[in-house]
């Protein structure tokens, strides 16, 4: 179903920075397809696929699932979609993820959003979430924050240098944060 060239947005930020929440608003307002890498991985666990047990253990440890596994899941969703505008939420989380996506999918993102949120606020939000996620406990959150600092910030810096990064101050109400996001996509609609 591919006619138009894809328009790809990577949505990055630490655990609980509000990526998923803002993606819902972007979908409503600008008509993107929302692909959450974490949701795709959790779906693999629930479907008891061959990689499920490995993915579950990796997520419990707050570590990063091998790139090939995640990129294949994203690729499948992109191919199945009739949309050409994609929000890829929570990916790439490492330089290796990034390179793997570029190699396998063969495209670079048009826009990279970074939801910049203080750690104490992220911890508070994740602990308040109560959706039964195996990684929403203080011990795993600390590991997720450490991995974010060590492995994901370099990806953010890479896109900053490429001039593709839009940093959002991810504090305040959901609506206040979306008012920083809206003009970024509105500019591309022109
Ligand atoms: N909330 C949202 N906005 C708020 C606001 N402005 N004020 C107050 N509260 C706000 O929000 C988190 C919570 O905060 C919610 O309860 C929300 O209502 C509230 P959410 O929008 O869910 O934040 P988000 O950034 O999406 O947080 P999430 O926990 O999903 O981020 P992670 O990046 O940690 O999780 P993800 O699902 O992307 O990944 C989970 C794990 O999967 C990773 O740790 C890793 O082990 C694995 N993974 C990979 O290995 N590879 C990948 O490519 C992706 C994931
Ligand atoms: Mg999320």
List the keywords.
190 residues, alpha/beta, 8 helices, 56% helix, binds P1-(adenosine-5'-P5-(uridine-5')pentaphosphate, binds magnesium ion
Account of the protein in words:
The chain is of the alpha/beta class and 190 residues long. The protein has one domain: Rossmann fold, CATH 3.40.50. 56% of the residues lie in helices and 14% in strands. The longest helix has 24 residues. The model has no long low-confidence stretch (mean pLDDT 97). Bound molecules: P1-(adenosine-5'-P5-(uridine-5')pentaphosphate and magnesium ion.
Number of strands: 5
Poorly predicted runs: none
Helix-strand pattern: EHEHHHEHEHHEH
Radius of gyration: 16 Å
Strands of the biggest beta sheet: in what spatial order?
Answer: 2-3-1-4-5
CATH topology: Rossmann fold
CATH class: Alpha Beta
What is the averaged pLDDT score? 97
Number of domains: 1
Ligands, ions, cofactors: P1-(adenosine-5'-P5-(uridine-5')pentaphosphate, magnesium ion
Shape descriptor reads globular
Count of alpha and pi helical runs: 8
What proportion of the residues form beta strands (DSSP E)?
A: 5-15%
Q: Helical proportion?
A: 55-70%
Content-based structural category: alpha/beta
The CATH superfamily appears as P-loop containing nucleotide triphosphate hydrolases
Main β-sheet description: 5 strands, parallel
Distance between the termini: 25 Å
CATH architecture: 3-Layer(aba) Sandwich
Topology:
Blueprint: E1 7-13, H1 19-30, E2 33-36, H2 37-46, H3 52-60, H4 67-80, E3 85-89, H5 95-105, E4 111-116, H6 119-129, H7 138-161, E5 165-169, H8 174-189
Parallel strand pairs: 1-3, 1-4, 2-3, 4-5
Helix pairs in contact: 1-8, 2-3, 4-5, 6-7
Bound molecules: P1-(adenosine-5'-P5-(uridine-5')pentaphosphate (UP5) and magnesium ion.
Magnesium ion binds next to helix 1.
């Amino acid at each position: 179903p591919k006619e138009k060239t894809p328009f790809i947005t990577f949505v990055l930020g630490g655990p609980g920075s509000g990526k998923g929440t803002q993606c819902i608003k972007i979908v409503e307002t600008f008509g993107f397809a929302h692909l959450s890498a974490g949701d795709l991985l959790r779906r693999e666990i629930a479907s008891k696929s061959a990689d499920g047990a490995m993915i579950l253990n990796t997520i419990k440890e707050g570590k990063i699932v091998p790139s090939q596994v995640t990129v294949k899941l994203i690729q499948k969703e992109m191919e199945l979609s009739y949309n050409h505008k994609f929000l890829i939420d929570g990916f790439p989380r490492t330089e290796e993820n990034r390179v793997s996506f570029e190699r396998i999918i063969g495209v670079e993102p048009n826009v990279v959003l970074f939801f910049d949120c203080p750690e104490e606020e992220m911890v508070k939000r994740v602990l308040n979430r109560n959706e039964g996620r195996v990684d929403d406990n203080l011990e795993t959150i600390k590991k997720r924050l450490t991995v974010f600092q060590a492995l994901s910030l370099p990806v953010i810096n890479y896109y900053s240098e490429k001039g593709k990064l839009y940093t959002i101050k991810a504090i305040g109400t959901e609506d206040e944060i979306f008012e920083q996001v809206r003009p970024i996509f509105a500019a591309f609609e022109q």
